[in-house]
Automatic annotation (TrEMBL), chains A, B:
This is Flavin reductase family protein. SMART domains: Flavin_Reduct. Belongs to the flavoredoxin family. Its cofactor is FMN. Keywords: Flavoprotein. The keyword Flavoprotein applies. Residues 16-167 form the Flavin reductase like domain. InterPro entries: Flavin_Rdtase-like_dom (IPR002563), Flavoredoxin (IPR052174), Split_barrel_FMN-bd (IPR012349). It comes from Herbaspirillum lusitanum.
């Protein structure tokens, strides 16, 4: 897999990539250790500040890295990376350096200490905005503070998890822009 | 659009339909009034109890109906309903009976007073499980208490909103079941 060259992207527009509901890879760092986990339970919560809510189960090795560092990067993989996405979810950062094992490139982020995954289509640098629901629901509310997106393709083939080992691959993109009332886009 | 015949579906498996991130239609009822809104900001939060978190902006007419009744139904439309989905988001329940205007069939639910939308592929009856984040984030945590899913097609063509009037239509479904470590599905 090749490293994708990225450009800056407005943080208040990350819904473009996250609202359709793709599986993402969450990278984290704490005291010299890094990790990657797969995540499917996330949603946009606000445009500005750019808030993303997500569940990170306590059993994940990443849970403590993210809880303690109060940071992560949400990375957007595409279908060419699907086997890697599955394999990342199959092993634990407790005994595996996932960047090394899966030959992924850790690139420095700008606003956080967690690394970007170079091979992903997009990288969203996040800081914990509200941790009040971590205890009860493992629910983290992050603010996206910096976004990087590859110039092409325009419509990346993201993968969307359905459970039971099945993934839906992003299909045709159609516009209904002309049908929307202004202000409702 | 035809009414879809449904069968009962296990509530702890609703991720099958919601985790891929489709646009949904939320129906509600309060004191004899019903309404429908489109929603894209939702995610699975737990299998059992079956929890779904979602943002319902305060400007929506549905907000007060759902907040007061503490109930709603999350309905899953498919691409044949896309124009209706857009049009539902373009008008307000304050001055429109959306079931009548869009010729949608309100069917009685089993566990809640909000109606099912008969033409949708699936209907998930929800009761408010936690309203603590409504004030700060318009964030509702629902428990799915009853699920109804059409027998076919197996893979409904859901639509996934990207903002700016653009929708991604659900594409190919591929399995990596054999690649998963048992227990990680």
């Amino acid at each position: 897999m090749a490293i994708r060259r990225k450009q800056d992207f407005p943080v208040h527009q990350v819904r473009r990539y996250l609202e359709p509901g793709p599986i993402v890879l969450v990278s984290s760092a704490w005291k010299g250790e890094t990790n990657i986990m797969t995540m499917g339970w996330h949603s946009v919560m606000e445009f500005s500040p750019s808030l993303i809510g997500c569940v990170i189960a306590g059993g994940n090795h990443s849970f403590e890295l993210i809880r303690k560092s109060k940071q992560c990067v949400i990375n957007l993989p595409t279908v060419e990376m699907l086997d890697t996405v599955v394999d990342i979810g199959n092993c634990s950062g407790a005994d595996t350096d996932k960047f090394a094992r899966f030959s992924l490139t850790a690139q420095p982020a700008e606003q956080v200490d967690a690394p970007l995954i170079g091979e992903c289509h997009a990288n969203f640098e996040c800081r914990l905005a509200d941790g009040k629901l971590i205890g009860k629901y493992n629910y983290f509310i992050f603010e996206v503070v910096k976004a990087h997106v590859a110039r092409s393709p325009k419509h990346p083939k993201t993968v969307h998890y359905m459970g039971d080992g099945q993934f839906m691959v992003a299909g045709e993109v159609i516009s209904r822009r002309a049908r929307f009332r202004p202000g409702m886009l």
